[in-house]
Amino acid sequence: MPRLSALFRRSYHLHSTYERLLGTQVELQVTARGRVEAEAAEQRALAELGRLSALFNRFDPESELRRWGDRPGEPTRISPELGTVLALADSWRQLTGNAFHPGADALGSVWQTAAQAGRLPDPAELDALVETLQAAPWTWHGDGMVTLHARYPLGLNALAKGFIVDRMVEEAAGQPGVETVLVNAGGDLRAAGPAGVTVAVADPWTSRDDAPASTQVRVCGAALATSGQAHRGYDIGGRHYSHVLDPRTGWPVETVPGVTVMAPECATADALATALSVLGPGPGLNLIAGFPQAAALIFTADRQIHRSATWPTGPVF
Q1: Mind listing the pLDDT tens digit for each residue in 74-133?
Q2: In contact, 181 and 192? CB cutoff 8 Å
Q3: What is the four-CA torsion angle of 105, 133, 84, 243, rounded to 10 degrees?
Q4: Which of 48, 86, 181, 227 fits 277 for a cystine, CB–CB 3.0-4.6 Å?
């Protein structure tokens, strides 16, 4: 017969924050049957965080992403992890007709330079870059060999961040005695286990940090990502332009100030949030209808909220 003290022992809860994931603060919560198990799960998650961040850090000249990016035109053997993220980027680029594109960062560089000069970008420069983005940014050769063609900045951070969050959760949740895991990277999060977490969805129509939430949603055994323009963008001539740029036109998105997506994995939620911001409610809801395990809220500039059919029922505040 088990001892009563063991039978009624409370779980141990670990809660820590780190400044390690591609420039983003990371929050990790683990609930396990004891401190030893929780700390073991934390160490596995942190080891995966450090290993993968070193691969995808575009500011580190020694990272695999930077080394590959410095060799355009040269067939290069890449790691399975980088290959996974590139394959995801390919899939989303093709599925969304370039509404999701890793070359959007190149457009961001053009807009940033123009904003610093106090003017709008040259339309001809934007058109030329958009034309360049029509071509595949790299070619696969098999056996882990890839040739980079793009000579513009590539943005893999959103997918890479989601991929790393997913791997951290999977590593921690797979440890003996672990009950629940939550990883939150700058608002993009994934929760594993039966407990889940209630997440407040920020009001995308205001930049006030103290504004009431637009709604709340329970995330359990799933991931959540948000794309919004309230706090980021380009100020030119007294007007604010969104940092979310349409790779098909080169211009900022104006009709969708915010999107929130739930999906089984964080990488999927991140990609969908970006794509839906560009596509808008009509094509966006059509896209997410092809993902029966995903759900979305699309906030439009006319202060309407468009829900996917899969979004949990309940009031939007």
Answers
A1: 999 999 999 999 999 999 999 999 999 999 999 999 999 999 999 999 999 999 999 999
A2: yes
A3: 30
A4: 227
Residue 37's DSSP bridge partners are: none
Contact 207/230 with Cβ under 8 angstroms?
yes
Under the banding of pLDDT at 50, 70 and 90, the label for residue 7 is: very low
- SS3 state at 33: coil
Tokens coding 40: 């073991």
> What is the DSSP code (8-state) at residue 289?
T
Residues 179/227/299/111 CA torsion (nearest 10 deg): 180
Helices (H) and strands (E) in the chain, counts: 9, 15
Please work out, in degrees rounded to the nearest 5, the angle formed at the alpha carbon of residue 257 by the alpha carbons of 256 and 263: 80
Asked if residues 266 and 188 have their Cβ atoms less than 8 Å apart, the reply is yes
- Predicted TM-score of the model (pTM): 0.91
